[in-house]
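Q: Could you fold this chain for me?
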Amino acid sequence: MRTVLIPIVAVVMTLAAQPGARAQSFTSLQFSNATGSPVTAWLTLGGNSAGRVENVTLVDVSTGQQVPVSGSGLQGSFTLQGNQAVSWNSFNGGVAAGAVTFRAPPQSCPMPGGPCGVTKGEFAINIGNEAVDVSSVDGINAIMAMDLSDGGATPWPSNPNGGRVAQNSGTLTGDKTAWGVFPYRCTQCAAIGDAPATDCNPLGSAQQSYCKDGTESNPQPVKCQLNRTGAGGTVKFIFRGAMDPVGG
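A: Sure. Below is the predicted structure, expressed as structure tokens.
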């Protein structure tokens, strides 16, 4: 069964290069907007997280100024200006599980004037066994990258070419070969599993599987969910642009 991750932001604070300086021992998150226009981001937390939205402090990585977060409880939103990045220390190194989405909160059923599902960046960090991914399961409304290059003392797994940046394709079929990405309707990496209702996932043929080949324990050609034991560094989720496919 696929582990459902919930969005959170982690930023690794690099300590000054001086005698006795030590690397950050916990994982932080960073959310960034790689486009030139503002975008709304939504942070949805899991109930096992160490705090709630009102305890989240986002900091602009360029200016050091705080970025306000609206909302309370397990869900809130904030605005990323063009080419802006913000960091979050995961409740000062506490458990953070959940997801980040752009342009809309997490949803699978189409809304009037809204997208047919939403792309998610999922995370579960500072829990001992960490897991992250990009998910197109509920639909696609954005191109999202996940940069795991900064893993601190415990590097994240790499893709077959040695890189550590995952990104969804923006198409229904393209994520079948995308490292670190759950394809459309694939609640399990290599199987549909408990598929969302057709009326909530109207893109593509109801009978077609867009999932990876192989088995859930050995998906092919690449994995959907990336795991590691340990913590440290910064997991970065990057909004690269809007995408609203109508098929294929």
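A (continued): Residues 4-21 have pLDDT under 50 and may be disordered.
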